[in-house]
Write a structure and sequence with these properties.
Blueprint: H1 2-18, H2 22-33, H3 38-43, H4 54-90, H5 109-123, E1 127-128, E2 134-136, H6 137-140, H7 151-155, E3 159-160, E4 170-172, H8 178-187, E5 191-200, E6 212-222, H9 227-242, E7 248-252, E8 258-267, E9 283-292, H10 294-299, E10 308-315, H11 316-324, H12 337-340
Parallel strand pairs: 1-5
Antiparallel strand pairs: 2-4, 3-4, 5-6, 6-10, 7-8, 8-9, 9-10
Bound molecules: phenylalanine (PHE).
Length: 345
């Protein structure tokens, strides 16, 4: 009986191994281990054995059964995997190929410009500061030395919040300059900050005017700060943004919160003889700035006899447009994917 069991094991394993598909395997299983299969038939002879031999044969039979069951299960898995692969190949699918690429988002040109500038200024020890988009009249105007009857207030085309917000009036900030005051109050002097953010104006929209756009404010306050420091900051900023030195010029400009006030123009980076971007003048207006007005320092609790500073207001949207060759500001906040997809980062 020992030999018979050993033979059953060998032959059974060979049969399992040669099964070509699930059906054949099922038939092999029934023939080997089924109720009227070969193992059952063999074990019927156990009763005729000597009593001391029975347990040994029983143990051996169990081992043969376990070996056969195990190889049946393994073979079944193997056949199932092969069948699946065949099915997939039938529908033209190769499961080993990588899937379709997941669509990646991209950084908006304005945010890319903001990030590059933040990197630039962080490396110079500036702090990145943030202010709210809904701002008090006091911060947006009064603390910046723009009195109630000043025409600058009208020229900003302010979008005001509903009247019933209490004694203080609130507006959508018209520029990032209120963050000058907020940063000064919170950090005190000396300080170096840049404040990127969105600003709002009630404008008739056209290719160069939009109700929402982005600026980046810069403010440095310390002892003995003057115009040369401002010029250096502005020029190195442009170099950081455009990757090379640009020729610049300074013109007088008026803003109630700086004195003296300037407008910085840069040589048009796109042409040698005048183009659409510089409107044929070869200069583009890039950045207003100036020395912080003593009233502003005072309204933020800083002593103007001890400290001085400079501030500049960079048109982030404008910089992004120049860098990416975008000719209409209305694209910037349009959310139009046909536009945005042109700037994979
Ligand atoms: N806040 C001004 C504007 O939006 C720009 C500016 C900033 C001018 C800082 C001078 C200094 O028009």
């Amino acid at each position: 009986m020992r030999e018979q069991l050993a033979a059953l094991r060998e032959e059974g394993l060979a049969e399992v191994a040669s099964a070509q598909n699930g059906e054949q395997l099922a038939a092999v299983e029934v023939a080997l281990l089924g109720r009227s299969g070969r193992l059952t038939a063999l074990l019927k002879g156990v009763g005729r054995l000597a009593a001391e031999e029975r347990p040994l044969i029983g143990k051996l039979a169990n081992e043969v059964k376990a070996a056969l069951s195990q190889s049946l299960a393994a073979k079944q898995e193997e056949l199932a995997a092969a069948e699946l692969a065949q099915d997939l190949a039938g529908v033209g699918l190769d499961p080993t190929l990588p899937g379709p690429p997941a669509p990646f988002g991209a950084v908006h040109p304005v945010m890319q410009a903001a990030r590059d500038l933040e990197d630039h200024f962080s490396s110079l020890g500036y702090v990145i500061w943030d202010g709210p988009e809904v701002e008090s009249e006091a911060n947006n105007f009064d603390a910046l030395n723009i009195p109630a009857d000043h025409p600058a207030r009208e020229s900003h085309d302010t979008i005001w919040m509903a009247e019933d917000t209490g004694p203080e009036r609130f507006c959508l900030r018209t520029h990032t300059s209120p963050v000058q005051v907020r940063a000064l109050r919170e950090l005190g002097a000396p300080l170096r900050v840049v404040a990127p953010g969105r600003v709002f104006r009630q404008e008739a929209q056209d290719a160069t005017h939009e109700h929402s756009f982005h600026q980046m404010e810069g403010l440095v306050v310390d002892k003995g700060v003057g115009v040369p420091h401002m010029l250096h900051a502005m020029n190195s900023l442009l170099e950081g943004v455009f990757g090379r030195k640009l020729e610049t010029r300074l013109r007088p400009g008026f803003f109630p919160f700086v004195e003296p006030g300037f407008e910085l123009d840069a040589r048009c980076p796109f042409c040698k003889a005048g183009c659409r971007v510089c409107k044929g003048t070869r200069w583009i207006e890039l950045m207003p700035g100036g020395l912080v007005h003593p009233h502003v320092l005072r309204s933020a609790g800083v002593n103007p006899n001890e400290y001085s500073g400079f501030a500049f207001g960079l048109g982030l949207s404008r910089i992004a447009m120049l860098r990416s060759n975008i000719d209409d500001i209305r694209w910037m906040m349009s959310g139009d994917l046909r536009f945005l997809r042109q700037f994979p980062s």
